[in-house]
Amino acid sequence: DADVTQTPRNRITKTGKRIMLECSQTKGHDRMYWYRQDPGLGLRLIYYSFDVKDINKGEISDGYSVSRQAQAKFSLSLESAIPNQTALYFCATSEWGVTYNEQFFGPGTRLTVL
Amino acid sequence: KNEVEQSPQNLTAQEGEFITINCSYSVGISALHWLQQHPGGGIVSLFMLSSGKKKHGRLIATINIQEKHSSLHITASHPRDSAVYICAGYTGNQFYFGTGTSLTVIP
C-alpha cells in the first residue's frame, strides 16, 4: 500500500463550488505539505503543517484553506473554486528532527475547474 | 526571479549517453533534494544531500555549497530514464523548487 495517499485522484468541478482534497499518510511523519503544480511553474507551496496544532501559509495560500485533523491527515479546501485553480495538487510528508528532511509525495490530484 | 534555477529545461539524449542536469540556487539552504517525476505525474525522491556526492545505481548527485550549485548525472542513459527531474532547496522549513528538466532518452 502507498505510504501517502490522496483522494480524489481526479476531480472536475464548476466555478464557485467548494471542494476538499484529502491526504493521508502511514509514514508517521509530523510534517505535511500541500503543493500545486502548473506547467512551466514548478511546484508551489500552498500550506504546510509541522504538527496537528501548527498550520502555516505558503507562497500561494489565497483561496485555499487547510485542516490537520490528525497527524496522518491533512486536507486542502478550495472555498469557492475558480478556473485558475485548475492544476495538479500534491500532498507531501517529511520527518521531523532528521538532518535531511526528504519529502515523500502522494500520487497527486488532477483538479479541473470549469 | 526563482530562488532555484535548473538547466537545461529540455534535454534529448541517445541511449547510452552521459547526462548532466544542473541546479543553481540563491537562497540559503541546508540541503538539496533531487526528485524524478514520471509522465504519469508521480514524484519520487532520488537524493537529498548537503555536501559532496551521492551515488545510487547509474545516478550521481553532487553539490558545491560555496558555489550554490548541484548537478545530477545519469550514466549509460536508458529510455526508462525519460522523466522530469526536479531539484529543490531545503531551508529547514520549506522547499524551493526548480521548474524541472524534461529528459527524453531515445533508443
Characterize the structure shown:
The complex is a heterodimer of chains A (114) and B (107). In chain A, the strands form 2 sheets. In chain A, strands 2, 4, 5, 6, 9, 10 and 11 form a 7-stranded mixed β-sheet that branches. Chain A is mostly beta strands. Chain A is globular. Chain B has 107 residues and is an all-beta fold. In chain B, the strands form 2 sheets. In chain B, strands 2, 4, 5, 9, 10 and 11 form a 6-stranded mixed β-sheet that branches. Chain B has a 5-stranded antiparallel β-sheet with strand order 1-3-8-7-6, with no helix packed on it. In chain B, strand 6 and strand 7 form a beta hairpin. The interface between A and B is medium-sized, with 22 and 22 residues.
User: What is the tally of helical segments of chain A?
Assistant: 0
User: What is the terminal-to-terminal distance of chain A?
Assistant: 33 Å
- What portion of the residues of chain B fall into strands of 2 or more residues? over 45%
Order of helices and strands of chain A: EEEEEEEEEEE
Overall, the morphology of chain B is globular
Summarize the main sheet of chain B: 6 strands, mixed
Radius of gyration of chain B: 13 Å
Report helical residue fraction of chain B: under 10%
Provide mean pLDDT of chain B, rounded.
92
Poorly predicted parts of chain A: none
The count of strands of chain A amounts to 11
Give the overall average pLDDT of chain A.
92
Helix content of chain A: under 10%
Structural class determined from secondary elements of chain B: mainly beta
Rg of chain A, alpha carbons: 13 Å
Distance between the termini of chain B: 36 Å
Morphology call of chain A:
globular
- The helix/strand class of chain A is mainly beta
